Amino acid sequence: MSRASGHQKSSPAARRKARRFALQALYQWQVSGSGLGDIEAEFRTDNDMSKVDDEYFHDILHGVPKEKSVLDDKIQPFLDRRLDELTPVELAILRLGAFEMCHRIDVPYKVVINEAIELAKTFGATDGHKYVNGVLDKLAQRERMVEIRGGKG
Question: Are 116 and 78 in contact (CB under 8 A)?
Fold first, then answer.
């Protein structure tokens, strides 16, 4: 379970950097099979983490693998292919976005989607951001309907 209820607010830039590093670490975890502790230690040694929301980075990096099966089950209905047919980058972005959508209700759904789109534009294939947008938008309609309806008020 996430620590969202007790999480202190941090700057959008610090969270954006946390997401970026978490995505890279999750990608490494997916393709290498290395342990999360080793990957996290490597990221902390090799990168300037001074302007990163450290707790958010940790929450995503450890939360996504812990919830992997549940997250995969949540995104699968909105995919046009099997999970193993997604690129590793797309899969990591979708899992990260699904984790935030389902476990970080302190982050508005529009922010979750927009941040995932930006990650896909930076790290993904051409037009991969459109696919990520479509999948996470459908997931938001299922997971954040109260928030979506409240915003249309």
Answer: no
